[in-house]
């Protein structure tokens, strides 16, 4: 989230799309309710009339997978009706930049496309630059090749009638959404966009979010209270686990992993290639070297490039889908699973289960026996005698049986104290990881093989006992000035010469001095604007609203007093206000860079045009991998830049055989793959059955009644469930063509108190062109009565 | 130890006890006798520890009441500016994460081809897992590729971690990269 939960109360309009906070983030909704009490509006856009929709002032439906058409139309509506914050757009975004003549867009394809590799040559999308390499600009925004004019042209195709013919949204609803949300372009108003997996789990997921970014920049809503783009995180620490880089392409703090390319052969080569000339990322070498010092300690020296060579360097996309494809093909021998249940939660889950049996060994660390750790059992439909996988199931302590911090959606790092000893023989994951490393280090101790070197060099100094000293871990994350041994005050003090360490630079500063772990802060006095600066610690540097420099005009004065966050105080010669400036506090508006709020980006302005993405600098509508209709925007049916895995691992369904759009969702009473909730008595009783939700119209066509047992099938598999016939789904009407949609919770499996068939046996193995996040939210299926 | 604002708790406990006492005194009963028969509140004398909810990313504060080595009660933390004492259905029932009979309490091992779990000791688990990891790693380790150091194994994967604490995710990333694991993924991708 650029903003945070309690800041939602400051919004004039919340557009909630691709998320359902009333059911899935219920307590967040109280802040929306407060916004409503102050006159704010809630707009809900969803294929289904959810409980969020029931609390909204405006609701519009759309067919799953048509978000870009929907938002493209809103961008066009804002531009055509001049409902934009023009000065903000001209000063704080790259709308004024001039794009080279090489940029073109024809029939769904941007210039530079290579069909054989399904990749773009992104140099075709570059900006025109002056002698110093800076982009040429036209702040009048009238140059025909300015980003602004190219954007206007690109989205002019998204007129209201073309849009609703794709999305199936009733016209009056669509216009009402555009009108309501675009009213936040007025100075003194702010609007927020809240989304979750309904936005990201598509082959165009990244561009869905991009479309949100563009409209928010056009409306001048980023950096303001009650504004921003707010991804609602689904797990208690998925923010933290992402920050700490449990992802193939990242090191802690969003530093990209070095890869097996010649430019990354040395630390110097990596730094040269990956460090931009401007923006805060120009400090990347300091972040990386300080991390290497934390990881390799005294074994990281200037002479050995601070241990850079110890880091693994991959040469491919190792993301979830590809990981399971490799497992399916027998390329993996072992796997560690920490509190994860892909046999329920993974896409095309039937295939992911099959893949597990190709492992030689699997270590599962969990509170429960899950469908994944028990994949070999007869109950799972397996023949145990034919599965040779050794499984080690380690009992883990629950969240309050240990201590540590978690980072919520707001980037607030909050401490959890230990309330009770771990149940039975279960142990904290911290101890399990620590003991595994200690055992491995023991085995390698006397070896000097190639494999032994990196593990022997790994600095592991968290105390002598079985249970590591968590305070030492926290300090290592924060980092030290290695010449004095003192804790670092913040990431501004990091160096690239090996004299500082920090396990994760974005968290540096949470533990600035002895006895002061700021994630433990519990002063709940509102310090202004609902920012609660003394409650917990928000990374980076305790800033609560990111890009808050943009809440003030170029001269440093808030755009409006009502939406003030920080402002330039000429008498003190610094930025001041209700929040920690997300900006260098002493850089005056008249100083170089003083009007560039987007400090992470080279150039300091936000990108309405993004020439770095894999699938184009502007979002463009493509149909999902499986779609009931042809793409009416171009002859490119699906995102031209997605990687398609052919064969058994990813069977594709045809709309003749599977004419219904399927999607998945969650309910309040269950959580993710259900292992944490289906193993509890009360929640199992509250929501005990797997069901498929459908419209009255579809039920009538199929002769299905409420509570009938039905079968849903896709190209990947069949599942059985109860029919839930509701008014919450309506058939989508697109140019007179009727398309039905069904939805289902994905929480169920065969373990626990509440059991049911797994929705993800239906979903495909295809991912977004940038992130490879699977397309769970729009697939084709059919339904029939089970008897 | 954590400083938490216990005034409200203490107030509630006190007022409950006082009300009970006053009621019996006013009715003219033998105060001591009746008091002895009054059932004590479940959370009386319980230890209260603040935590953050383990479910979604809202990060609600929860107070965990423990007594006699079990969790007797959980409730929303009124001091938290995120939830101000409120909780959803999952947060409300978080006590059952501890009390559920389905919790694993012992390390379990399944041998190749076997139909069942066997209980094992932690030491045996650590030693055996480390041995397996080393065997696979040594066999598949790639030190160099096209003349450059790549120090990786493509035969071991690590999945999951969105429910771990920050300190744990940090150690997990450090461990896996230290081993040369490139297939490092978790729920943020799915």
TrEMBL record, chain A:
What GO annotations for molecular function exist for this entry? 4 iron, 4 sulfur cluster binding; electron transfer activity; formate dehydrogenase (cytochrome-c-553) activity; formate dehydrogenase (NAD+) activity; molybdenum ion binding; molybdopterin cofactor binding
Q: Where is the Molybdopterin oxidoreductase domain?
A: 2-438
Similarity comment: Belongs to the prokaryotic molybdopterin-containing oxidoreductase family.
InterPro entries associated with the record: Asp_de-COase-like_dom_sf, Formate-DH-alph_fdnG, MoPterin_dinucl-bd_dom, Mopterin_OxRdtase, Mopterin_OxRdtase_prok_CS
Show where the Molybdopterin dinucleotide-binding domain sits.
663-779
A cellular-component GO term for this protein: periplasmic space
| Name of the featured protein | Formate dehydrogenase O alpha subunit /selenocysteine-containing
Species in which this protein is naturally found: Mesobacillus selenatarsenatis (strain DSM 18680 / JCM 14380 / FERM P-15431 / SF-1)
Cofactor(s) listed: [4Fe-4S] cluster
The UniProt keywords, alphabetically, are: 4Fe-4S, Iron, Iron-sulfur, Metal-binding, Oxidoreductase, Periplasm, Selenocysteine, Signal
Q: EC top class, in one word?
A: oxidoreductase
TrEMBL record, chain B:
What EC number(s) does its UniProt record assign? Answer: 1.2.1.2
A single BP term in Gene Ontology: anaerobic respiration
Family recorded in the similarity comment = Belongs to the prokaryotic molybdopterin-containing oxidoreductase family.
Asked whether the UniProt record includes Oxidoreductase among its keywords, one would answer yes
Matching entries from Pfam families are given as:
Molybdop_Fe4S4, TAT_signal
PANTHER family per UniProt: FORMATE DEHYDROGENASE-O MAJOR SUBUNIT (PTHR43598:SF1), TUNGSTEN-CONTAINING FORMYLMETHANOFURAN DEHYDROGENASE 2 SUBUNIT B (PTHR43598)
Organism of provenance:
Mesobacillus selenatarsenatis (strain DSM 18680 / JCM 14380 / FERM P-15431 / SF-1)
Q: Which UniProt keywords apply?
A: 4Fe-4S, Iron, Iron-sulfur, Metal-binding, Oxidoreductase
Q: What sequence ranges are listed for the domain 4Fe-4S Mo/W bis-MGD-type? A: 46-102
Which cofactor is recorded for it? [4Fe-4S] cluster; Mo-bis(molybdopterin guanine dinucleotide)
Q: Which PROSITE patterns match?
A: 4FE4S_MOW_BIS_MGD, MOLYBDOPTERIN_PROK_1, TAT
Where can this protein be found?
A: Cell envelope
Give TM segment ranges: none
Q: Which GO terms describe its molecular function?
A: 4 iron, 4 sulfur cluster binding; electron transfer activity; molybdenum ion binding; oxidoreductase activity
List, alphabetically, the GO terms of the cellular component aspect.
cell envelope
Q: What protein name applies here?
A: Formate dehydrogenase O alpha subunit /selenocysteine-containing
* InterPro entries assigned: Mopterin_OxRdtase_4Fe-4S_dom (IPR006963), MopterinOxRdtase_cofactor_BS (IPR027467), TAT_signal (IPR006311), TAT_signal_bac_arc (IPR019546)
Q: Which NCBIfam families does this entry report, sorted A to Z?
A: TAT_signal_seq
Q: Which domain of life is it from?
A: Bacteria
């Amino acid at each position: 989230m650029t903003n945070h939960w309690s800041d939602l109360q400051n919004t004039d309009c919340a557009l909630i799309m691709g998320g359902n906070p009333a059911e899935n983030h219920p307590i967040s909704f109280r802040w929306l309710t407060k916004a409503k009490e102050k006159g704010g509006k809630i707009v809900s856009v969803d294929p289904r009339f959810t409980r969020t929709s029931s609390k909204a002032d405006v609701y519009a439906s759309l067919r799953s997978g048509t978000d870009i058409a929907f938002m493209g139309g809103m961008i066009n509506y804002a531009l055509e009706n001049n409902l934009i914050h023009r000065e903000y757009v001209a000063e704080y975004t790259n709308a004024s930049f001039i794009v080279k003549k090489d940029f073109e867009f024809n029939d769904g394809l941007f210039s530079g496309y290579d069909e054989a590799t399904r990749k773009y040559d992104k140099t075709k999308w570059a900006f025109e630059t002056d002698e110093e390499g800076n982009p040429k600009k036209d702040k009048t925004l009238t140059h025909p090749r300015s980003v602004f004019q190219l954007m206007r042209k690109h989205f002019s195709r998204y007129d209201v009638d073309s849009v609703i013919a794709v999305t199936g949204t009733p016209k009056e609803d669509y216009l009402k959404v555009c009108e309501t949300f675009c009213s936040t372009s007025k100075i003194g108003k702010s609007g927020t966009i809240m989304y979750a997996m309904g936005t990201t789990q598509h082959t165009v997921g990244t561009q869905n979010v991009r479309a949100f970014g563009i409209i928010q920049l056009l409306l001048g809503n980023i950096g303001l209270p009650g504004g921003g783009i707010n991804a609602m995180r689904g797990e208690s620490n998925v923010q933290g686990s992402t920050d700490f880089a449990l992802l193939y392409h990242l090191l802690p703090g969003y530093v990209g992993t070095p890869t097996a390319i010649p430019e990354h052969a040395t630390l110097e080569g990596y730094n040269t290639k990956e460090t931009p000339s401007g923006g805060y990322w120009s400090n990347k070498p300091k972040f990386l070297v300080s991390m290497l010092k934390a990881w390799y300690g005294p074994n990281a020296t200037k002479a050995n490039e601070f241990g850079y060579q110890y880091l693994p360097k991959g040469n491919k996309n190792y993301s979830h889908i590809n990981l399971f494809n490799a497992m399916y093909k027998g390329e993996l021998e072992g796997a560690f699973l920490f509190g994860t249940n892909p046999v329920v939660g993974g896409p095309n889950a039937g295939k992911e289960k099959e893949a597990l049996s190709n492992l030689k060994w699997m270590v599962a660390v969990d509170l429960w026996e899950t469908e994944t750790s028990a994949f070999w059992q007869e109950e799972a439909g397996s023949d145990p005698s034919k599965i040779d996988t050794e499984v080690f199931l380690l009992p883990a302590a629950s969240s309050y049986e240990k201590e540590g911090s978690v980072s919520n959606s707001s980037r607030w790092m909050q401490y959890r104290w230990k309330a009770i000893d771990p149940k039975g023989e279960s142990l904290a994951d911290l101890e399990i990881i620590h003991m595994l490393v200690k055992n491995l280090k023991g085995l390698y101790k006397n070896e000097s093989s190639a494999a032994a070197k990196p593990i022997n060099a790994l600095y592991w100094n968290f105390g002598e006992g079985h249970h590591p000293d968590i305070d030492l871990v926290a300090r290592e994350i924060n980092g030290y000035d290695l010449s004095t041994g003192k804790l670092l005050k913040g990431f501004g003090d990091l160096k690239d010469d090996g004299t500082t360490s920090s396990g994760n630079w974005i968290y540096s500063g949470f533990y600035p001095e002895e006895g002061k772990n700021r994630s433990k802060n519990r002063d709940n006095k509102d310090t202004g604007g609902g920012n609660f600066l003394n409650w917990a610690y928000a990374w980076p540097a305790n800033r609560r609203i990111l890009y808050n420099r943009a809440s003030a005009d170029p001269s440093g004065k808030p755009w409006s007093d009502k939406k003030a966050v920080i402002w330039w105080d000429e008498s003190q010669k610094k930025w001041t206000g209700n929040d920690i400036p997300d900006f260098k506090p002493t850089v005056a508006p008249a100083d170089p860079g003083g009007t560039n709020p987007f400090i992470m980006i080279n150039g300091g302005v936000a990108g309405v045009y993004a020439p770095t993405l894999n699938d184009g600098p502007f979002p463009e509508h493509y149909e999902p991998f499986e779609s009931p209709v042809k793409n009416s925007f171009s002859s490119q049916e699906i995102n031209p830049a997605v990687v398609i895995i052919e064969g058994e691992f990813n069977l594709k369904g045809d709309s003749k055989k599977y004419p219904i759009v399927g999607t998945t969702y969650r309910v309040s009473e269950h959580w993710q793959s259900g292992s944490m909730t289906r193993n509890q008595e009360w929640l199992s009783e509250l929501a005990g059955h797997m069901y498929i939700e459908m419209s009255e119209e579809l039920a009538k066509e199929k002769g299905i009644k409420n509570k009938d047992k039905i079968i849903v099938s896709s190209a990947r598999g069949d599942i059985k469930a109860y029919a839930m016939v509701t008014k919450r789904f309506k058939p989508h009407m697109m140019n007179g063509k009727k398309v039905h949609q069904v939805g289902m919770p994905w929480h169920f499996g065969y373990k626990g108190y509440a059991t049911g068939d797994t929705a993800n046996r239906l979903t495909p193995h295809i991912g977004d062109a940038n992130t490879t996040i699977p397309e769970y939210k729009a697939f084709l299926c059919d339904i029939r009565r089970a008897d | 130890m954590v400083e938490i604002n216990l005034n409200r708790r203490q107030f509630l406990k006190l007022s409950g006890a006082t009300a009970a006492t006053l009621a019996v005194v006013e009715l003219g009963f033998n105060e001591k006798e009746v008091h002895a028969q009054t059932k004590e509140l479940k959370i009386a004398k319980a230890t209260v520890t603040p935590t953050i909810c383990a479910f979604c990313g809202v990060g609600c504060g929860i107070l965990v009441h423990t007594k006699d080595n079990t969790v007797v009660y959980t409730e929303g933390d009124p001091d938290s500016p995120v939830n101000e004492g409120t909780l959803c259905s999952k947060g409300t029932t978080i006590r059952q994460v501890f009390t559920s009979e389905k919790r694993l309490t012992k390390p379990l091992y399944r041998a190749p081809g076997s139909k069942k779990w066997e209980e094992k000791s932690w030491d045996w688990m650590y030693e055996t897992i480390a041995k397996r990891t080393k065997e696979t790693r040594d066999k598949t380790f790639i030190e160099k590729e096209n003349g450059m150091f790549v120090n990786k194994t493509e035969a071991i994967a690590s999945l999951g971690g969105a429910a771990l604490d920050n300190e744990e995710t940090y150690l997990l990333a450090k461990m896996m990269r230290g081993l040369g694991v490139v297939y490092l993924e978790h729920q943020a991708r799915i």
